[in-house]
Amino acid sequence: MKLPPLLVYTVLRLLAFLVPLAILWFFFPIFREFWWLAAIFAALIGTSISLLFLRAPLSGASTELHERRSARAAERQRDEDAEDEATGQA
Questions:
Q1: Which of 38, 70, 83, 88 has the smallest number of CB atoms closer than 10 Å to its CB?
Q2: Residue 45 in contact with residue 18, Cβ under 8 Å?
Q3: Contact 56, 42 (CB under 8 A)
Q4: Phi first, then psi: what are they for 17, rounded to 5°?
Q5: Do 54 and 9 form a contact (C-beta atoms < 8 A)?
Q6: Are 59 and 9 in contact (CB under 8 A)?
Q7: Predicted confidence band at 89 (pLDDT cuts at 50, 70, 90)?
Q8: Which helix (H) or strand (E) holds 24?
Q9: What is the largest CA-CA distance in the chain?
């Protein structure tokens, strides 16, 4: 069973944030006191990791979203054409 690319990308992005947060929290005692600073650093590290290493999952997720949106637009156009034909409009 293949997982949806958007789910894979979301989980990897969460891991890219949570793993550095856990490392900062457990191995650097100062970040236990300043938890907000650990969250900021973890967000910066997670963003850097995702920019460097998650290009392929991002591409797959955006391709899937584009295909879904295109299919919806095509379905909407078919519905409008059918309504125009039924009402006799051209």
A1: 88
A2: no
A3: no
A4: -90, -45
A5: yes
A6: no
A7: low
A8: helix 5-27
A9: 74
**What's the pLDDT tens digit per position in 32-77?**
999 999 999 999 999 999 999 999 999 999 999 999 888 887 778 7
The secondary structure of the chain as a DSSP string is -PPPHHHHHHHHHHHHHHHHHHHHHHH-THHHH-HHHHHHHHHHHHHHHHHHH-HHHHHHHHHHHHHHHHHHHHHHHHHHHHHHHHHT--
Domain range for 25 is: 5-87
Under 8 Å CB-to-CB from 61, ≥6 apart: which residues? 5, 6, 8, 9
* b/e map 20-37, b = 16+ CB within 10 Å: bbeebeeeeeebeeeeee
Please report where in the chains the tokens 């998650």 appear, as a residue. Answer: 54
> Residue 48 corresponds to which amino acid?
S
Spatial separation of the C-alpha atoms in residues 72 and 41, rounded to whole Å: 40
Sign for the pseudo-dihedral over CA of 56, 57, 59, 60? positive
User: What single letter denotes the amino acid at residue 7?
Assistant: L
